Amino acid sequence: MSHIQTLTKYVGHFVDALWRSGVEQVVISPGSRSTPLALLMTEHPHMKQWVNLDERSAAFFALGLAKESQKPVALVCTSGTAAANYMPAVVEAFYSRVPLILLTADRPHELRDVGAPQAINQIQMYGGFVKWFHEMMLPEANPAALRYVQQQAARAMQQALEGNAGPVHLNFPFREPLTPDFTMENIWSSGESNGEPSLYGTSQLDEQLVSQLAELLASGKKGLLVVGPQEDKALAQAVVRVAKAWQLPVLADPLSQLRSGEHDKDTIIETYDTILKAASVRAQLQPDYIIRFGAMPVSKPYMFLLKENPAVKHIVVENHAGYREPVGMHTQFIYCNPASLCEALAKQPAEKRDTWLPVWQQMNRIACDVLQDDAAQLELTEGTTVQDILQETPADSHVFVGNSMPIRDLDSFFFATDKHVQPWCNRGTNGIDGVVSTALGVAASGKRTTLVIGDLSFYHDMNGLMLGRNYGLDLTIVVINNNGGGIFSFLPQAQEAAHFETLFGTPTNLDFAHAANLYQLPYTLAADRNAFSRALQESYRTKGMHLIEVRTEREANVSWHRGKWQQAERQLLTYLEQHHA
Fold first, then answer.
1. Of the four, 108, 209, 401, 450, which is 20 to 30 A from 255 by CA?
2. Where does the Thiamine pyrophosphate enzyme TPP-binding domain start and stop, copy by copy (predicted)?
């Protein structure tokens, strides 16, 4: 068998086994050394291919695909620094527990460490940010080698999904020539079974554990249920049942999947970030215990509440073993299915008793009234921009927000609604890179998606717009342009007047109409809220990408937000004083 025939069978069997294991999509960045993988992925009858010229953008796009589908997505690139460009998205995938399968082409062993072009050390190049690494053998086509390559495909899928999901890396050394022979028979299989995909059962809840937690809930102490960023759609109904049964407030992060949908929201406290903003209010809301589901919430005031109450009984419920507790508290971790645990607790007999749920519910109403009192205001602010997006976005749609200010405004202004809106954000490492590409990966699901992004984050990932244009993806991009890093204006660095603009404010002075023109996108500069609403509605009526720019001023933005928080603090303190009286 010739070299080309061997290469074709070897890679073909791998690609087919990867698909049979459950990988349905691959993102390919063109290059020479990756030719066998790229062509055989493209020729496979069932694999969906996306081509993205920029490897950094490609990896974040794959991240979005995997986040939305909750299935592993493959990535293919050539050797050298192409693979290094995957690193930011790999790190994000690792910390946000998103399954990616990285397939990097490489020079054969004789061309390594000898000065050959596009040859770098790719062994373990992602270090501890992948769950598993494997250096593939050079292609052979004997039965043992074909079984081997199929087994590695299945194992990659298994490793990506086992426990907490995450990225895995397979490195493929290839010798030239590199072009497969598609006239061959049995490219995908030699008639032998490729094996069956791995199956995962569910663990049984420990009855003693359920009883112990039920005793805590029945103790009459002041408890909080907290749901941080998480993507289990079954958890919302289950948590609400526990909260209703035991009369507990639920502090719901904007990425918790609890603020929108058809479930009961009577116990949901969506404005807890605003409620806890002032230390004077937090001092009157000291809990006895907290049970948290999902990752650490976005809210910094919630973190302050934990730090100010180190003796509180703190329980974190996770699907699989891990350690997400950044405050340094004494914490009990419970590893089980969170929704199943909630269902079991909701069935426990709950006695009628006085709780502090009504206090939280009234505070939530007060905070909502303060935050929403700008209905007649025509001037666009960063907060009203988010409110208007959530008002106008169609039902059953996605909203992707950037980090820094957009996620914090989503936290403040995403009010409970029966309209289902799926919120997304890259909160694994909270970075501002790759946001456009990740949002496009989410939009590739076919659901209308709105991206809310700051000007610096948009600048970081404008390359991602090429793929969105090429594939006609439906994405409304709202760029909140405050000409720099708006989040820093809220931080102590703002007091360093001499160097603030150069090191933190970092104004770009870019006219984003030119970016829209470069990628042939419809563009609107919204002058006020009415114009902004019209631009949103127009984008939702038509296909493709749309770029809407909202210009704000950083110092005015700080004043507007702080005015809201101070108004909320005054009203909350008045209520709490009257309540205790």
1. 209
2. 436-550
How far apart CA 343 and CA 143 sit, in angstroms, is 49
| Residues 335 and 403 occupy one common structural domain | no
Q: In which region does residue 496 sit, left (phi positive, over 0), alpha (psi from -120 to 50) or beta (all else)?
A: beta
> What span, in angstroms and rounded, lies between the C-alpha atoms of 331 and 128?
25
DSSP 501: I
Are 435 and 345 in the same domain?
A: no
Structure tokens, 221: 């102490």
Q: Which of residues 356, 391, 407 is at a domain's end?
A: 356
- Tell me which H or E stretch contains 525: strand 523-525
Local structure of 400: helix, strand or coil: strand
For the chain, the distance separating the N- and C-terminal CA atoms, rounded to the nearest angstrom, is: 89
Q: Do 155 and 274 lie in a common domain?
A: no
CB 74 within 8 A of CB 41: yes
> Which has the closest alpha carbon to 83: 71, 75, 91?
75
Which pair of structure tokens corresponds to residue 27?
């993102």
Amino acid at 342: C
As given in the structure block, the two tokens for residue 389 are: 């997006």
Residues across the chain: 581
Which two structure tokens, joined as six digits, stand for 555? 């110092």
List Cβ neighbours of 306 (8 Å cut-off, separation of 6 or more): 290, 312, 314, 327, 329
pLDDT tens sequence across 279-334? 999 999 999 999 999 999 999 999 999 999 999 999 999 999 999 999 999 999 99
Q: For residue range 516-574, what is the model confidence (pLDDT) as tens digits?
A: 999 999 999 999 999 999 999 999 999 999 999 999 998 888 899 999 999 999 999 99
Same domain, 264 and 339: yes
Q: Are 484 and 508 in contact (CB under 8 A)?
A: yes
Which residue type occupies 423? P
Q: Which residue has the tokens 């501002």?
A: 432
Residue 25 lies in a domain: yes
Q: Report the mean per-residue pLDDT for the chain.
A: 93
Closest CA to 449 of 411, 494, 394, 512: 394
**Do residues 385 and 480 touch, judged by C-beta distance below 8 A?**
yes
- The reply to whether the predicted model has a pTM over 0.70 is yes
DSSP track, 219-265:
T---EEEEE-S---TTHHHHHHHHHHHHT--EEE-TTSS-SBSSS--
- Whether 266 and 132 map to the same domain: the answer is no
Domain contains 507: yes
